[in-house]
Amino acid sequence: xxxxxxxxxxxxxxxxxxxxxxxxxxxxxxxxxxxxxxxxxxxxxxxxxxxxxxxxxxxxxxxxxxxxxxxxxxxxxxxxxxxxxxxxxxxxxxxxxxxxxxxxxxxxxxxxxxxxxxxxxxxxxxxxxxxxxxxxxxxxxxxxxxxxxxxxxxxxxxxxxxxxxxxxxxxxxxxxxxxxxx
Length: 182
Description:
This protein is of the alpha+beta class. It has helices at residues 11-15, 38-58, 114-127, 177-180, and strands at residues 23-26, 29-32, 61-65, 70-73, 76-78, 82-86, 98-99, 104-109, 132-137, 142-149, 152-160, 164-166, 174-176. The protein contains 4 helices and 13 strands.
């Protein structure tokens, strides 16, 4: 019996999509992303504004939000919801794309993207040098903070309600899930 292996899509295939197309290239598969719900966008805006204020005040680097392509390899180009790139790694920021993993990545889950964000994308972000990934779960109204420990993405903390969450990636950041979902 003859089996035909499906050829993986590459960044060149992905780059042919129309500008503004809501897709990501995940492990050689072009995945269409749904339009975010209001709670998703509210969380992105609130956290993005907090990060930007700290980063601008202390001249620490750049904060970017989706849609912004993050090229990791020929089979993986993602669009994290929010990202921080330190001054030390500013060279990965191009005019139209980020080439390398940001220091801090934030993914806001939706039912159709949770599998990709947690199981597929997070390990690849860490493989390419991300220091932390934050997962914001709109349905649970929670923030989870992950780092790579012993080669595995590991949850370091979780914030719900007024519990504070901090990170050594941005020491001045101190927020709660309640503030993100306000």
